[in-house]
Design goal:
The protein is of the alpha/beta class. The chain is built from 18 helices and 15 strands. The chain has an eight-stranded mixed β-sheet with strand order 6-9-10-11-12-13-15-14, with helices on both faces. Strands 2-1-3-4-5 form a five-stranded parallel β-sheet, sandwiched between helices. Mean pLDDT is about 85; it is low at about 1-20, about 145-150 and about 155-160.
Amino acid sequence: MKGEHSAVLETDQPAVHDQKASVYIETLACERRLLDAQKIRTYFTKNNYDVVDNPKEAQFIVLLTCGFTNAAANVCFGSIEKYKDYDAELIVVGCIPETHGERLKEIFDGTTISAKNLERIDEVFPGNIVKFSSIKDDNMMLRNTRYRSIYDYLKYIDERFWMTRKTTSFLINHALLKITGPLIYKTFPFNRLFIERSCFYILISRGCIHHCTYCIIREAIGPLKSKPINQCYEEFNRGIQQGFKTFVLEADDVGPYGVDIGRTLPELLRKLITIDGHYSIELRNTHPYWLLKYQEELAEIVKSKKISSIFFSIQSGSDRILQLMKRHYTPTDVKNLVKRLKEIHPDLEIGVDILVGFPSETVEDFHETLSLFDTIPLDFGDIIPFSCHKETEANTIEPKVSEQEKKRRIKEALRFLRKRNYFALKIWRQGSIAFYAR
């Protein structure tokens, strides 16, 4: 089917096809891929495709995938199995083609596009006039049209049934948030339910420069490619002009921003906070190494009170496990940094990713990780059972922690968090925990 549609128009105008082709886009991946998905949607609309809400109505199905954990990959493979039997051409995009390539080839022989090479979509659709490279990064994440957010449903009700407005507002502000805490929208799956929380996203870079022993995602996203500071500034300023108050700096790893272009994250932040206005900035997906490297500069920037949230992947509270992971910092370093930043800005929200069950992790190592919650104020985050990829160095480390023991530790962590008055919920399909300070 691909390549059969023709297009004729000027290169700076949307392409016009003899007959509109239809495409359905779904993402089962992280926030970076949700931004990619929105860019892909723009690519198709500019080339005059009909982006539909129902995959059964589509000629093309574009599925964005995640390969970070085996649980996430299993969800993606379930969708691949389902959609490959539809009367449409399935295109598998994202991390799975790189992280689980052999498994993918066993069940799917169609088109794949990796996250590090999205421009290849032009090869799949050679008749398109508007090329993918000419599409600017989007500043809003794609909402899966079949899986509407809570915001969508409430907006629908408010628009049609005005008598329910006070009721829905009361339920959200006085019931749901009282139970869960105000940070419910911070991590999966609630970030998908409250996806329209008036955030303006800026993808400041792509790729990764670290060599953590457990991670396969680096192969899927490629080397670091930072966006010029002036371009980030222009996007930020555009968001200000559009009335946004919350700005999220996104990247596969925010910390090393600029290393490839002779710039630094603090340099970018100092530039952004010169813009006048009442707004806040959230830093996502940061390797602690960079927070520690730049801590003197970050401390000064945090004094501006413009940084409202920092999310970093601490992964473990055990020095030994961090060394095996090749994460070049210590829990004590991170504890001291967080305490310092919190003293400067008490309302600064700190979020973390934690892994449980890394090869050779003992019960004592696991308890050292839980002790983080008693020594530093953590506001939100995820606790994820470790998945071992056979291509990684971590796969050579023995002994392995059994799946049964990982599940036991997840249950223990869940009880531990609830006793400390966190709203903590187990995500059954992922086997992970999402938690929020009340």
